[in-house]
Design a protein that fits this description.
By secondary structure, this protein is mainly alpha-helical. It is 73% helix and 0% strand. The protein starts with 24 loop residues before the first helix and ends with a helix.
Length: 434
Amino acid sequence: MSETTVISVPRPRTAVAAAPQRLTTARGAALYIGALLGPGLLLLPGLAAAEAGPASLLAWAGLLGLSALFAVVFTALGRAFPSAGGVIGYVAAGLGARPGLAAGWSFLAGVIAGAPVVCLIGAGYLTELTGGGRTGQAVIAAALLLTVLALAAGGMRTSATAQLLMVSLLIVVVVVAVAGSAPSAHAASWTPFAPHGWLAVGHAATTLMLSFVGWEAVAPLTAQFADPARQLPRVVGITLAVTSVLYLGLAVVTIAVLGTHGGSMAPLADLLRRAIGPAGPAAGAVAAVVLTLGAVNAYVNGAAAMTGRLLGGPRRRAGTAAGRPAAEEANGRRPDRLLLLAAIAGTGLPLIALYGVGLVSPVSLVAIPTTLFLTVYLGSMLAAARVLRGLARLAAIPATAATAIMLAYCGWALAVPAAIIAVVTVTGSIRRSR
């Protein structure tokens, strides 16, 4: 995640901030893959399978195609607006300053709402190993959230090397789970193919969208390639190939092996148990906790910079504040950081408690940040369709339509971005009237 430009979904992206001034194709591909993979992969394939059955594979395939469109569009936006402040600048360039602010606040709210989801994922793998049920999972998740917030309050940052190692760990765990559990597949798991009807594929796609947010975080890296015209197509191609193989492989095996039982909070632990025996859940728990702490710490540090830009004036939203060291701006000023941590704790702990007492489901928790990110992506695609030309504009048009369709499946969760847009609109009107 690029800490100096924009934050994103719960996954290890701080590596982007420490990227060298001239990226090689191999390192660029590693950073792009790191922006798209994260702890959500430990949970979402099972949720999608529970929502749509084997037909959820259609959602995976469709989203992989949409991911390719996002890659084209955000790469073009990153090259056209290299210092625009991430999604705030992208949306503002095409739709105006107020929609840009709404996009920024929606993105920040998505990060705040995503933190408890990531912690619950990690806690789910621990309780799969130790027991404790839903209540125990909520207690562990709260402890994980408080731990990472305490680390972030002290200024701890995760290095680029550590972030890339965590992404490598996730890849290894997924490969072992897929390859080792595949012999346990059952043909009966594929029937009925669409047990909940075809409309359920749309709901599954909305849930899975959280695994496909990330292109906006690496868009600013385009300026760091020595030869972007030659390197970018290779980097994007490698990224799409690797993520497609991992996503589809895990999705197919989750359905084939776990069938209707794939909707647990720890589906990868179930696959690892079949792959390597009793040690599987323990391996899954270790990986989940490491990824949880690393991912939340990474995007909390990145989010602090965006908090400062949103609370500051236009100059801070456009880039590094005048007279302030770049490293300090990237980490966020301490008041901005503490305010963000308070917001995450004040939102995350109640959401975790609601899950613990059974009042909200995993799908409901995922729906909030997903809807917020979809709102930002819709604004970005609309803006791109107005300001870009050529292939990027052609990619933005169907991407806009697909994003709008997925938003239509979000239901009640649409109230959250709608409220943010309303507040930004009213606030802007009041300021203008003065």
